[in-house]
Amino acid sequence: MSGRKLIAIDLDGTLLGPDGLVSEATRDAYSHVLGAGHEVVIATGRTWYESTSVVDAIGHRGFGVFVGGAVTVDLARDAIVRRQAMDRELARSTCDVLEQHDLTPLVLQDREAAGVDYVFGPRPVPKDVLHWNARNDMKTRRVDDLAELDHVHTMRIGTLGPQRQTDAARAELDRLHAGDIVTCQIDLATYGVELLEVFDRTVNKWAGVSHIADKLGIKHGDVIAIGDDMNDLPMIEAAGLGVAMGNAKEPVQRAADRIIDTHANDGLAEFLRELVG
Length: 277
Fold this sequence. Notes:
Layout: E1 6-9, H1 11-15, H2 24-35, E2 39-43, H3 52-58, E3 63-66, E4 71-74, E5 79-83, H4 88-100, E6 106-109, H5 111-114, E7 118-120, H6 127-135, E8 140-142, E9 154-161, H7 163-177, E10 181-188, E11 193-200, H8 205-216, E12 223-227, H9 233-238, E13 241-244, H10 250-255, E14 258-259, H11 267-276
Parallel strand pairs: 1-2, 1-12, 2-3, 7-8, 12-13, 13-14
Antiparallel strand pairs: 3-4, 4-5, 6-7, 6-9, 9-11, 10-11
């Protein structure tokens, strides 16, 4: 691999194995890439705080793109360098649509500014969400009515539910706010539900990755993006080299320049080793 590269790596399904952990092979390959003088960026749908255990496991102190591209952090300085919140009225409307479809809005905040990670309304919060938040020490609070929340620090609104409900909610949101939002729907087969996420229209992983590339003086053609799910598509399509995991969704594999082995077989580690020779 000639010249300095920026390598953007997704977490779940890519850097992390099926057990949700970083393998020794991946940790070693990550170190070799840095030792060769290249830049690595974590690009994930998780929040900064939900990613802490992974960041610590690989000793990553570079940049991170979190919340699907809504937040970019300089981890060496523990400083947010870019954030894109949702329009307040758009956030209120999104919460209203989800509640009309009998879905619980999961309103993600900028913890640095709001002091909490999630705000919930009066509707019951799915047990899987409560378990995940407890495991990751996420800070939450309840309000009586999400329509009364000012939403100045709302970065993303998500929900979990049966596909028929999330499909219907997504269709209505697209009808009401076409051009103003980005929606991402992910099949969480393990839990038997769909995850629907709604962002400001400017939010995607490539927006964060390209911002970092510009900041570091790295040409976009020298960016390598690696991922497995639908929220990885923008960066895989735009990067100089788009790489899909062997376990990636079919549209992601179709869009990629190259497909590597699965996360269960340390496909990322093998690919990174190959890059540095």
